[in-house]
Automatic annotation (TrEMBL):
Its EC number is 3.1.1.29. It comes from the Bacteria. Residues 1-21 are annotated as: Disordered. GO terms for molecular function: peptidyl-tRNA hydrolase activity. The keyword Hydrolase applies. The lineage of its organism: Bacteria, Bacillati, Actinomycetota, Actinomycetes, Kitasatosporales. It holds the Pfam family PTH2. It catalyses: an N-acyl-L-alpha-aminoacyl-tRNA + H2O = an N-acyl-L-amino acid + a tRNA + H(+). The keyword 4Fe-4S does not apply. This is peptidyl-tRNA hydrolase. Keywords: Hydrolase. InterPro entries: Pep_tRNA_hydro_II_dom_sf, PTH2.
Length: 253
């Protein structure tokens, strides 16, 4: 199995200051298309954002001597930040003209871009708004398929859609890091099936004790530092409670 070699004491998702904070800081930009007349459904936007993160991680341009490989390495050597901005109309067309990958869901479109310096966003992305990504589900999402990966959101936290999209992306990335090359290839070839769902309050503590990848927020926006936001329940990573098998990835961003 492929594991993230970073110890928890120097994790890129750690909320306390660490050596990772001394490295140049980068951010992975994601832009969600939100047209006034036809905004995407919230759950579909979360799932599409998570697939977008996986798609750029798996892209050949992100590996080896690929054109995005250096930026991807620099980003993953520091805090692995993700920021979701919104666009519509001409803003979206300008964003699509920049190097990146557009991932489409049932109703959502999300474009992910190679990492950029924290203070060095391209002009056409820097001008986009972060706020205003509050989305709704027209109908309650159907139950998640237990045989497929599920990103379980903390039922006790209220997050904007943009914040939740970034958190879902973190969780998907933690799962990706822990999979073997063969498991990654299988997930990729299947089109990265996954679901994002809010956990039942009665089951949340069980999920956080199953040894599955767990995202803790660093508290930069919206919620308190150290808050557990998402559990990545990938079937290949399910373990017995209380740490049987490999230690779980627990990160905050």
């Amino acid at each position: 199995m492929s594991e993230d070699p970073t110890p928890v004491s120097d994790s890129p998702f750690r909320s306390e200051p660490s050596a990772r904070d001394e490295a140049p800081q980068f951010v992975l930009p994601l832009v969600v298309r939100i047209e006034k007349a036809e905004p995407p459904a919230r759950t579909d936007a979360l799932e599409t954002a998570a697939r977008a993160v996986l798609t750029i991680l798996a892209d050949e341009r992100s590996a080896g001597e690929g054109e995005w490989a250096g930026a991807m390495r620099d980003w993953q050597d520091a805090r692995i930040r993700k920021v979701v901005r919104r666009a519509r109309g001409a803003e979206w067309r300008r964003a699509e003209a920049l190097p990146g990958i557009t991932v489409t869901g049932k109703s959502a479109e999300v474009r992910v871009f190679p990492p950029v310096p924290l203070d060095g966003w391209p002009k056409d992305l820097a001008r986009l708004q972060v706020s205003g990504t509050d989305l709704d589900d027209p109908e309650p999402p159907v139950d998640a398929d237990p045989a497929a990966p599920v990103l379980w959101l903390n039922p006790d936290l209220g997050m904007s859609a943009g914040k939740a999209m970034a958190q879902a992306g973190h969780a998907a990335q933690l799962a990706w890091w822990e999979l073997s090359d063969e498991e990654r290839a299988g997930w990729h070839d299947a089109g990265f099936p996954l679901a994002a769902r809010t956990a039942d309050p009665a089951r949340w503590s069980e999920l956080t004790g199953m040894g599955l990848p767990l995202v803790r927020d660093a508290g930069f926006t919206e919620i308190a530092p150290g808050s557990c936001t998402v559990v990545a329940d990938h079937p290949a990573l399910r373990r017995e409670p209380h740490g049987a098998g490999r230690a779980a990835s627990t990160r905050s961003e």
